[in-house]
Amino acid sequence: MSNRSEVVIRDLVKSVREVLRHHDVTFEEYRAAVGFLMKYAKAPEFEIPLTCDMLFNATVADIEMTHRKGSVSNLEGPYFLESAPTITDRIKTRDEQGEALIIEGRVTDLSGKPVEGAQLYIWHADPQGYYSGYSDDYPVDLYRGKKIIGPTGEFSVRTTMPAPYTIPHDGPSGELLGFMGRHPWRPAHVHFKVRAPGFIELTTQAYFAGDKWLDSDSVEGVRSPLVHAPGIRGDAKLLKKDFVLDPA
Predict the structure, then answer these.
(1) CATH code of the domain covering residue 224
(2) Of all helices (H) and strands (E), which one includes residue 187?
(3) How many domains does the chain have?
(4) Structural domain includes residue 28
(5) Is-contact 164 217, C-beta < 8 A?
(6) CA triplet 197, 202, 106: central angle to 5 degrees?
(7) Per residue in 131-161, pLDDT tens?
(8) The pLDDT value given to residue 1
(9) Among 100, 166, 174, 243, whose Cα sits 20 to 30 Å from the Cα of 36?
(10) How far is 38 from 54, CA to CA, in rounded Å?
(11) pTM of the prediction?
(12) Residue 97 confidence class, pLDDT cut points 50, 70, 90
């Protein structure tokens, strides 16, 4: 075990002990908590990472931003796939369902210089709140794509508006949310990941102003710089989203 691991674990245990003392937790309550944790042993394997992401992922993204000067990062979530198809100007959707959305912007370095050749991954839920690529009848080439950025750094991609959705909540993660007086809903959002040689990978999201769940996101991931009021272009909503990359 590294010294850093030892220090972090000791501080974590110390903090939990302080909470137990502060709230005068009884032995019966302690046993009930241990019993609840045992439910994870019998639950599907995704429940532990789901709970960890639900409680801590956004905080780690915030910590990361203390070492960056570029665009605000945000949690990745469980639905990123390396196998996303390369696209030009359109993400494939199912039967043209949902309201059209155009996403456009630039990928630059800290000085504003375009980052040619950057890989921009875009993925989001469909109009019913589901992600592609996780069942045989929902192929990976829907509602996700990888755009290769050209010499100007500019991009424009057409897709559809995502829908809010609930995270899995019929297991211990959902039960934990109930203990905390919280719901399982996430506001509508679009995921992005930008990769380019010589730069730190950027993972982030974009949220939409006015969404019902912005102020009570179940994973507490919403940050004000990531909330956008979309414009209108023709028959589509327009999301302006620039990405500024930090050097590696």
Answers:
(1) 2.60.130.10
(2) none
(3) 1
(4) no
(5) no
(6) 80
(7) 999 888 899 999 999 999 999 999 999 999 9
(8) 53
(9) 166
(10) 19
(11) 0.93
(12) confident
First to last CA, the chain: 27
Are 156 and 103 contacting, i.e. CB atoms less than 8 angstroms apart? yes
Tokens of 70: 């570029």
**How many other C-beta atoms are found inside a 10 Å radius of the C-beta of residue 76?**
16
Please say whether the beta carbons of 126 and 163 come within 8 A: yes
Whether residue 21 is contained in a domain is answered as no
Q: How confident is the model at residue 235 (pLDDT cuts 50, 70, 90)?
A: very high
Asked if the structure places residue 22 within a domain, the reply is no
Structural domain contains residue 27: no
165: containing domain: 43-245
Q: What is the pLDDT of residue 9?
A: 95
Residues 6+ apart with CB under 8 A from 204: 71, 72, 73, 74, 191, 192, 193, 226, 243
Contacts of 188 by beta carbon, 8 Å cutoff, 6+ apart: 125, 161, 162, 163, 164, 207, 208, 211
